[in-house]
Amino acid sequence: MNGFKEKLRSTTSRIIAALFGGLVCTVALTIAITLVWPFGDTVEQIFAGGTFFFVFWAALFYWAILAPRGTRAWLRMLSILIPAMALDAMMLFAPLT
Fold first, then answer.
1. How far is Cα 60 from Cα 90, in angstroms, rounded to an integer?
2. Maximum pairwise Cα distance, the chain
3. pTM to 2 decimal places
4. pLDDT tens sequence across 16-36
């Protein structure tokens, strides 16, 4: 168990959180924006979500890299992922339009 904690706190864990966690969070945020975007038709909603993709990924990547430990980086990714996934699930079951 001690070895797992050390690996989770390592720099490698921060980098994996930045790459993989940032990508997963970005996809969830992009889907959320696409589902919630109030203007235009479906194509414009998809473009609106896709427009912010790189901005979200870059911000989440740097936010995870700047974490002092790997555990903090994963907690940062989860703090964005859980609300985004909840919004995605809520919009799939009860869409706005």
1. 23
2. 53
3. 0.83
4. 999 999 999 999 999 888 888
